[in-house]
Structure prediction request, 84 residues.
Amino acid sequence: MGDPKQVLRKYINEELQTDDEAEISDDANLLTGGMVDSLGVLKLVSFIEHEFEMEVADEEVTVDNFRSLKDIGDYLERKKQGKT
Prediction:
């Protein structure tokens, strides 16, 4: 598996975002930027659970963890290290 942010960027571009030409930066706000809506967050959580073979608890689905690719990458790293 490659860089989690790249895997997520590809998924968002292919499955959630309607504008295929838009490049998503690591710090772009996915939620207020209109790239991922509430249903998209649920799909993204499901993808993360499947792709990274981990469970995402309901209380971990927060703006702080899912605001940007950087935030999601940081969350995944903490989760991997057992720090969430």
